[in-house]
Please model this.
Amino acid sequence: MRVESVITLDDLDKALIHALEVDGRASFARIARVLDVSEQTVARRYRRLRGAGAIRVVGVVNPARLGAVLWLVRLRSTPDAAWAIAEALARRDETSWVELSAGGTEIGCLVRAHAGESGDELLRHALPRTPNVVDISAQCVLHVAFALSWRRKRMALTDDQVAELRAGHSASYGPWAPIPSDRPAVPLEETDLRLLNALAVDGRTGFAELAAATGLSETAVRRRLDQLRAEKGVVFEVDLDCTLFGHHVTAMMRMSVPPKDLTAVMAALSEHPEIVFVGATTGQTNVVASVVCRDERDLFRYMSTELAALEQVAWVESSTTFRQFKREGAVLPGSPGRRVGPTGGTGGTHSRANASAKAPRRPRPTRPVP
Model:
């Protein structure tokens, strides 16, 4: 079994990552001025981290501003079909965080459904018709309390440096701040969708390349992107491969919390260093959180200490990730599903780890998700 080498970050690497989290499209020259180093040094450090697959800046659609709804979807399938279904889901523009859990028989993902007849096509039509899917459940994400980089909680820049980087694009920092309910959604054109798809692959794509992808002029692309950022329609985040930083276990926690305690519990969870996503949902459980830990023992420590200290949490269901097919943004061309966890993952709460487990084959169902 191949084990990814751990990347060692020095203070400059950490400062660069933090700078990109403040403004993912900041030029190397601008970042260099803030960090008081040369532009060549910043470019070299970025290319090293990007080339190793450790970081990637992605343009992320803010559903609250673009008239879309997030759904947390769980699928159970026969073991021989799960891989192919997960791969097909990862290729779709409206999905993110496509993962296998429960030893490779359960698929989880976030689905972004836009308004209109085609917005819920995946949930209402494609998935129910997919062979070998034995169960589907979907929870509507009512509120996102935290959905930022796991490393952002390890701040490397001073407040003055953050303020300098935020100048002109303050809306890109803290994208999940509450938005007035009477504020109308940002209407999207076909060119906007092509622009957003290009930024989902690489949030630092140059304006010339974006112009080619959309059919607009560079000036028009620049103006439209500035508008979308100002309206919080798109935000830029740093997608991190946590395994390369020594964190090999990711887990999904679904919790039951009394409604009167929802805000307090989500605020507390957002402060935990291990948490990368917290949201309120519909369904039998009403809080969902994504956790990143070094290994299974570290996950147990988190559950038995920090999580256990939240007495308002009445019930928890946990499931660790077996394979990851897509994180935020678009799946990269040629990226296979990646095993998560030094022992191959541990499925659900009661499943066993198998240190010698081989990678499953990739069978194709007769008609995978279109």
